[in-house]
Design a protein that fits this description.
The structure holds two protein chains of two kinds. By secondary structure, chain A is mainly α. Chain A has 15 helices and no strands. Chain B has one domain: P-loop containing nucleotide triphosphate hydrolases (Rossmann fold, 3-Layer(aba) Sandwich), CATH 3.40.50.300. The chains are: A mainly alpha, B alpha/beta.
């Protein structure tokens, strides 16, 4: 039987290679051209540094691809954490309404004319915490953590969020509507490097915190009592993980809007590949989630003949059928 | 010999619902201590309170003469292991991985096991006679095998006290005996103190060094099985007629709950 550390090393190595390959593809392919050869020459310094194509590759595509990596990693990891804490294979930030809550906060921020950082980000975080609190209050001591009731409450929270978002949009001026709607559908275009840097600064500590508690998540799958009797401080672990996850999700939502079902695809695929150990799954989700989102974004900008579609369309098209499949399988 | 557990004036409650009412007793170190009583008598709550997973209202609990609040979570986990009533059936890990989790109080936050931990887990699996299942997935096991694996996890935790909540519930007769024999082996070979809750009084009578009979959070009786399992005390606790005679094994009380249809006619002749 394989040691955890060996498995961790092996999976991280393979998935890092995959992620790098996806990033390479992501910055090579685009409507203005380029291709793998050009990017390779550009990296090794064999092209003119100030050529048009170089500018597009490094100023437009590169930040966008790195943003996709961060967002995919965060949402996949968010799905993994919620699935472990709520012991529900269908839990995911978007389905639970955490993303919706962040979106409401963010839109209020945008309408109030706040800057993206810290104003809109802070509003998004507040929105996600309100929804998180709502879910926890509804679930305290109740059976709502069971599959069906959790889903139903999620659907309702989402419906409520959607109504609020529509209400807020109806208040918005003509000029802002297009921006808000496009952003809502999940949008990775118009990303700038400073934005990516700021997001990375928020996300990296969150990733580390979640990895530190990865073994506690394993033990908590055994139930509250057994985990506690093996020395896990359930309260501290749960609260830290929930707040950390909400923080990361709201940070990505305020940057690129609502991307649904991302937290469903990667955790399930990786569990099938690498087994149930969270010490392996947390890094795997970060790497593979990033790669997945880069590929989705690549599809979103290369599928349409003209222009591009929001990447949220792609993630929902892949994720929603998977969700239905999982729902059917888990109810057996 | 010192006591494994000393409980004094203990009360605990779920919200406003008091489940343990001001009870005091001690558990001798190195023995099989079985808690019995009707549904809702507070057996499980008592076990949870001793394991430190449920808070209590008042009184004190001492583990080997040390107050339970003076233990850190990890040091308590090194002293006491718990096998709850409901173990998850869909736990996706392999048997070996689960048993290794018993080492977590001794390991860092990431719980990365050393060579020594593998050896301890190996021994625990052999001890409970499930070594051959070591690379099976937990959700593929039968109820009896699963229970043995969860006990192996508790053994791997190397505690001085093991608490079990109805470990034989819904198992077939051969697994019931197997598990109870194992409990006896834990006491005799490892010198552990085993405290368990059981609904099967006949089984408890055959194995227990000490029985604790609870009703509505009060102690009805505590002592060796022959003293606790009497017609009068059982009727008081369970509110039904239970005949007690000697088992064919000798010197062990055997209980027969009496169905309603026998109560008027035949019972009078018997009593």
């Amino acid at each position: 039987m394989k040691l955890v550390s060996k498995k961790l090393f092996l999976s991280s190595f393979v998935l890092s290679a995959l992620l790098l390959a996806c990033i390479f593809a992501g910055i090579s392919i685009g409507s203005t051209g380029g291709g793998f050869k050009w990017v390779w020459h550009s990296i090794t310094g064999q092209t003119e540094a100030d050529s048009m194509l170089n500018t597009i590759i490094w100023r437009v595509r590169f930040p966008r691809v790195i943003m996709a990596v961060l967002v995919g990693a965060t949402l996949s990891l968010g799905g993994l954490v919620f699935q472990a804490l709520l012991r529900n294979p269908l839990a995911e930030p978007y389905i639970l309404g955490i993303s919706g809550g962040s979106a409401i906060g963010a839109i209020i921020g945008i309408l109030a004319g706040l800057s993206l950082f810290p104003g809109v980000s802070f509003m998004a975080f507040s929105g996600s915490i309100v929804i998180l609190a709502l879910i926890l209050v509804m679930s305290s001591g109740q059976s709502i953590l069971k599959k069906d009731s959790l889903l139903l409450s999620g659907v309702m929270v989402n419906a409520f969020c959607a109504a609020l978002i529509m209400f807020l949009i109806s208040l918005a001026g003509e000029s802002k509507i297009h921006n808000i709607i496009f952003w809502l559908m999940g949008d990775l275009s118009m990303v700038e490097m400073w934005q990516v840097g700021a997001l990375a600064l928020i996300l990296l500590p969150c990733f580390i915190i979640i990895f530190i508690f990865s073994n506690s998540m394993n033990l908590m799958l055994l139930g509250k009592e057994m985990a506690q009797s093996m020395g896990v401080n359930i309260r501290v672990v749960t609260i830290t993980l929930l707040i950390t996850t909400s923080l990361m999700v709201s940070a990505t939502v305020s940057n690129c809007g609502l991307l649904g079902f991302v937290g469903l695809v990667m955790p399930h695929l990786l569990r099938l590949t690498f087994g149930p150990d969270h010490r392996v799954l947390v890094p795997a989700c970060i790497l593979a989630g990033g790669a997945y989102m880069v590929l989705c974004d690549l599809l979103a900008r290369s599928l349409p003949h003209q222009g591009e579609m929001p990447v949220g369309v792609i993630t929902a098209m892949i994720g929603a059928p998977l969700f239905i499949f999982l729902l059917k399988r888990s109810s057996r | 010999m010192s006591n494994a557990i000393d409980i004094k004036d203990l009360s605990c409650a779920y919200g406003k619902n008091t489940v343990i009412r001001n009870i005091s007793f001690s558990v001798k170190a190195g023995g099989l201590f079985i808690i019995i009583g009707p549904n809702g008598s507070g057996k499980t709550s008592l076990l949870k309170t001793i394991s430190g997973t449920m808070k209590y209202e008042k009184g004190s609990i001492k583990i080997f003469d040390r107050h339970i609040h003076d233990f850190s979570r990890k040091s308590l986990a090194k002293a006491i292991a718990l096998v709850p009533q409901h173990v998850p059936a869909d736990f996706p890990f392999m048997v070996m991985e689960l048993v290794l989790m018993g080492r977590s109080p001794y390991l860092g936050i990431l719980g990365l096991p050393e060579k020594e931990d593998f050896e301890i887990a190996d021994q625990a699996l052999s001890f409970t006679d499930v070594k051959h299942l070591c690379s099976r997935k937990l959700d593929q096991l039968s109820g009896g095998a699963r229970q043995l694996v969860f006990i192996a996890r508790a053994v791997c935790q190397q505690p001085q006290i093991i608490l079990l909540d109805e470990p034989t519930a819904s198992l077939d007769l051969s697994h019931q005996i197997k598990i109870m024999d194992l409990m006896e082996k834990l006491v005799n070979e490892k010198g552990l103190t085993v405290i368990m809750v059981s609904h099967d009084i006949n089984l408890a009578a055959m194995y227990a060094d000490t029985l604790l009979l609870l009703k509505e959070g009060n102690i009805i009786s505590i002592g060796i099985p022959a003293d606790v399992l009497t017609f009068k005390l059982l009727e008081e606790a369970y509110g039904c007629t239970i005949l007690v005679d000697e088992s064919p094994l000798g010197k062990v009380p055997r209980l027969t709950p009496v169905p309603q249809k026998y109560i008027d006619g035949k019972l009078k002749e018997l009593v």
